[in-house]
Amino acid sequence: MSRTTLTAWLFLAPALVLLAVFSFWPVGFGSYLAFTDYSLIRPTHWVGLDNFRYIFGNEMFVTGLVNSVLFLLMVPCVQVGALALAVLVNNQLPGIRLFRAAFYVPVVTTVSVVGIMWGFMFHEQGTLNYVLLLMRAVDAPVGWLSHDGIALFAIMFVTMWRGLGWYMVMYLAALQTVPADMQEAAILDGANRWQRFWKITVPMLRPTIAVCTILSVLAALKAYQEVDVLTQGGPMNSTFTALYYAYDQGLKHLKLPRALAASFVVSLLCIGVALCCLRWLKPKHR
Amino acid sequence: MLTVLAGMALAVHAAAAPVQKIVHQKIEFWTFSMKPKFTPYFDGIVRNYEAANPGVKVEWVDFPWDIIQTKLVTRIVAGTPPALVNLNVPWADEFARDGLLQPVDALLAPERGRYLPSTLQDLTFGGRTYGFPLYSNVAVIAYNKQIFQAAGIARPPRSLDEQLAFARQIAQRTGKAGLCPALAKIDGLMMQQGLDVIRAGRAVFNSPAHVALIRKLADTYKVGGLLKDSLFAEDNFPAAIDAYKGGRLGMLLAPPTAVGRIALDAKDVYAVTAVAPAPLGPTGIADGGWLIHFGVPAGVDKALLPAVGKFARYLTNDANQLAFAKAASVFPAAARASADPFFTTVPPGAGAAEKAVAAGAVSMPHSHTLYVAGVTDYDELRRTLVKAVEAGVTGRQDIQQALDQAVAIWNRKLAKQFSVVGQGVPGSDPSGLLGGFKEHRSLPEKRCWLASQHSSLTPVFGSGFGNTMVTP
């Protein structure tokens, strides 16, 4: 091993030790326990796929898994929205800093505050219904969180609202690295604003789009906080997500093997979808 | 010289010995959600006990209620459990089944008769008692006199049917909701109304009587009589009390503590609030009973148990229960304390909060924690039932069909757990709610004590309305 390599490993060592102790080991051990009857209070036995058979035979988990996949619908919306906002706030307009800050505030707001705030908004006698009734857009209050056909989409909207500012900032940073001379050259060649966006900006942003999309996909598949603060899985179990099921079983009911099995499935799903995203979104050339 | 020094040292040691506190026994007890409001009370308990019992060191630890179970399991597994821990009845049942609690009959014995029989009954699983009863929340009806007047109602309801009828009347005449039952605990409501959830090892909540009950709820829901916010949420109490404080709800089924909160947060609504005892069901069981007690975890040193028992009896004696109940507006589980004039007489000029205490005291002897005990994964089964009830009440599915489907799911799961051995234990349950069951052979051995000793698959007590983890 060369001296340079050794030095590199030495610098990496503290971080690797921390990762090993607090990430790799818990993930590996947790994955192993998903195949056992682990209970804290009894000796642990290997039970093979029993926990997985149980969760896949459980309506709440299956609903949760379907809902987690449905959450992926949010990904294109949030990415397109964030990119559009980034392009907008990249212009030097009056008051643009305030606008940027306003979109970033939800990112730094804790989920409990978000839950309380959107709880008021979505309430049957809440702000949203009040405005809609005032505008005569609806005849009766909409059960945003109490109708099983609507609640999941209401939660998806809140998740999207929370994430938008984060991705906007990432795209904004990327936009500011696009060389101005390329844009100027294109202007000289007679390219209009739309052509410059599609032919220069988007290709230059491709690595950022890939990263943001993968992060967004993973966030969608792992959604559970908003569910917990807004609906706790209801109405009629319609807003269960796979990870909320894991939380519910593991931390509320101390059924740890089921929770670990559900987490294992979510992890596999995340890895699979992330690999697909990497394959599809990888820049074709550097 | 050395002799003189040694003599002096001994003399100094001898003189110092009486003032030095020698700790022989340490008793750690856990409560949930008592800090900071009850810190002076528990500090006083600890101080007085230590002063009266030299050699005993008492340590009080308080956790938020939602993490105390995890903490307890962790400490039991680590072999360092606390001597006493605050639990509710469903938790005690589950911990007892898992062998994580010790029966306390021997420790209770000297003063068993001091506690209300109904509270000891709640804590008796398999013929053994698993805790020292501390206090219970009992629901009262707080009602908005203005809304009642506008709806043309002159008195509080005396039965569930009247509650629902009044709720419909309130909705039709005022456009406001009348009632906000905790329908996530529909099993408790069924039991309180004398309707079996499980009989002879099978789910039976799809009978015509059950359908009729759900239909009454559905009819009330349809005309806007039930508060729709969080109606089926696991804990809809915050939504209910918010609606009541906002003048959007006619009746609130809640413990007296909640009436105190209305007094603090919504003075205008409090000014038009009156209270009445919650109606008893046909079973004679009061609404909203939720017993909190001290259990002794498994693994507590046997040598320490007599001292633990002595402290637990002190902690839950009449004087201490009465002091705590007065401070917290809850109801003592000790018989003499619960008969104290504080609970039975209403002082002149008393407000709704004080009257609520007296109204709750009327119900306390009829209070039980309604809960189906002894069923593995009961919460999951209950979720299936709640989903069916929600579908039926909101009109998204035919009630009979929804309940039939839920019953089929329950019976598939119950069949794996139990095999039927009889049609109940004659005389053991005047309400006819209990069944006699035998655990399936394939179940872990630790659960087999249920077969012979558990008074039933379900000591079937609990609540349907306003039953929530309301801490004082």
TrEMBL record, chain A:
It is a multi-pass membrane protein. Keywords: Cell membrane, Membrane, Transmembrane, Transmembrane helix, Transport. The keyword Repressor does not apply. The chain crosses the membrane at residues 69-89, 101-122, 142-161, 204-224, 259-281. Its main location: membrane. GO terms for cellular component: plasma membrane. It is found in: Cell membrane. PROSITE patterns: ABC_TM1. Residues 65-277 form the ABC transmembrane type-1 domain. One of its GO terms (biological process) is transmembrane transport. InterPro entries: ABC_transporter_permease (IPR051393), MetI-like (IPR000515), MetI-like_sf (IPR035906). CDD domains: TM_PBP2. Belongs to the binding-protein-dependent transport system permease family. This is Lactose ABC transporter permease.
TrEMBL record, chain B:
The keyword Transit peptide does not apply. GO terms for cellular component: periplasmic space. Its main location: periplasm. SUPFAM superfamilies: Periplasmic binding protein-like II. It comes from the Bacteria. Keywords: Signal. Residues 1-16 form the signal peptide. It holds the Pfam family SBP_bac_8. It is found in: Periplasm. This is Sugar ABC transporter substrate-binding protein. Belongs to the bacterial solute-binding protein 1 family. It comes from Pseudoduganella armeniaca.
